[in-house]
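Q: what sequence does this backbone want?
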């Protein structure tokens, strides 16, 4: 057996079976004031869909082959081109999942949808500006109005662990998978994000696209109870069609796009860290208020511990936003679907036509290494104290005030371009981010 077998699986809802025993449940501070996660009403895309369904403003058509999936994806504005396939049994619909019947996963900036062939429900995760990741199931039975249920306790068993930054969030995981779709637990596993080398990614996934001589573990089925070293996955690499592996006609698209997979891995980490920064700041400020009240101090009296909590969570968020420790590519990567083109078109652009959604795919994921997720309601909803710290930290790094080696991957041109793009495309920036400070702060 190998200790190096570390691949990836996205779990959008409850993992079941022995794998769940390996996950360390986080302390549920978020169930207490001021967060009160399960008690609080979400204000996410799904809550708006529910209101429209109830009023009759929206009707979801039922497809005899796919149920509500096509209509639901359209309603929540999730592109079919984002489709990826997971063939390991790591969803609560595990009996429906196998290498011949993989689970399809779709996503956008604020939505994640899981679909099993002949499954009973759609598995849904939405990003709420204040609550972070909220979980739902959509009944696949044909009704006049589909039933959408919020899920808390069951999904939180796995989706509020140390692997999701200790908050309700998403997981991208690694496992080796046998012929039946069962994970081979003895082979080990770990969490995957944009820092993970490609050779350790995508076990348990189908992957379509080309990547030169680089290795990965996608499309790999382990035929024995133990994994042999070195792993030979030649047949699973640079795959552009999955027709010989399962019936692709049973899904909306034949692709499990390699670029979509990499974007997902970055996005999940940043979503979790934005949520962590939000919760940490709100909890810290609540604690400060209660302590000052008990001690008879002014409510605005800042505690050192509060400042430290805000800085710690804020620093981790900035690191993820700026792709610190990103795994580099040695060959150019090409997706197999329209995902790369469609994703790049969605972002706002500056006067020079530049966008944070532009891809590089030669040595790293994006051309300008700053996350497009700074232009989302989730980021904008950070508490004032956290948002002020994050913007200042970003400015200090990009202007060159902070000279930490971990930011050495940002060239002078990168920093200047990021500042200019953000300055032109982002509203409500602090004054020091505006044009009057731009030229002097970004001189080489």
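A:
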């Amino acid at each position: 057996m190998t200790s190096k077998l570390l691949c990836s699986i996205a779990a959008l809802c409850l993992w079941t079976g022995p794998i769940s025993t390996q996950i360390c449940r986080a302390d549920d501070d978020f169930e207490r004031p001021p967060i009160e996660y399960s008690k609080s009403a979400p204000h996410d895309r799904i809550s708006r869909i529910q209101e429209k369904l109830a009023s009759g403003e929206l009707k979801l058509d039922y497809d005899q082959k796919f149920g509500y999936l096509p209509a639901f994806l359209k309603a929540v504005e999730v592109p079919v081109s984002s489709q990826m396939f997971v063939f390991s049994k790591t969803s609560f619909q595990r009996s429906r999942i196998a290498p011949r019947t993989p689970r399809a996963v779709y996503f956008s900036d604020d939505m994640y949808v899981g679909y099993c062939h002949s499954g009973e429900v759609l598995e849904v995760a939405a990003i709420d500006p204040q609550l972070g990741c909220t979980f739902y199931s959509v009944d696949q039975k044909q009704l006049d109005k589909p039933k959408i249920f919020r899920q808390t306790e069951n999904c939180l068993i796995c989706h509020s662990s140390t692997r999701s930054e200790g908050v309700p969030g998403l997981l991208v995981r690694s496992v080796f998978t046998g012929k039946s779709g069962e994970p081979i637990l003895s082979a080990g596993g770990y969490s995957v994000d944009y820092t993970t080398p490609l050779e350790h990614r995508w076990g348990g996934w189908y992957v379509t696209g080309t990547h030169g001589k680089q290795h990965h573990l996608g499309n790999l089925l382990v035929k024995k109870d133990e994994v042999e070293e070195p792993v030979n996955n030649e047949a699973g690499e640079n795959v552009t069609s999955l027709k010989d592996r399962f019936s692709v006609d049973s899904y909306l698209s034949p692709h499990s796009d390699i670029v979509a997979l990499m974007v997902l891995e970055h996005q999940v980490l940043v979503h979790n860290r934005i949520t962590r920064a939000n919760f940490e700041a709100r909890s810290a400020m609540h604690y400060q208020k209660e302590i000052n009240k008990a001690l008879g101090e002014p409510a605005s009296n800042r505690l050192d511990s509060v400042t430290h909590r805000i800085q710690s969570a804020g620093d981790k968020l900035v690191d993820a936003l700026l792709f610190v420790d990103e795994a580099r590519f040695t060959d150019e990567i090409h997706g197999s679907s329209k995902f790369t083109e469609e994703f790049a078109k969605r972002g706002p652009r500056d006067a020079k036509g530049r966008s944070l959604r532009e891809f590089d795919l030669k040595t790293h994921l994006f051309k300008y290494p700053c996350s497009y997720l700074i232009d989302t309601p989730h980021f904008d909803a950070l508490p004032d104290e956290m948002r002020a710290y994050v913007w200042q930290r970003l400015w200090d790094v990009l202007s060159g005030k902070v000279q930490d080696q971990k930011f050495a991957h940002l060239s002078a041109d990168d920093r200047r371009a990021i500042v200019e793009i953000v300055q032109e495309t982002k509203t409500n920036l602090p004054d020091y981010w505006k044009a009057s400070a731009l030229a002097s702060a970004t001189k080489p």
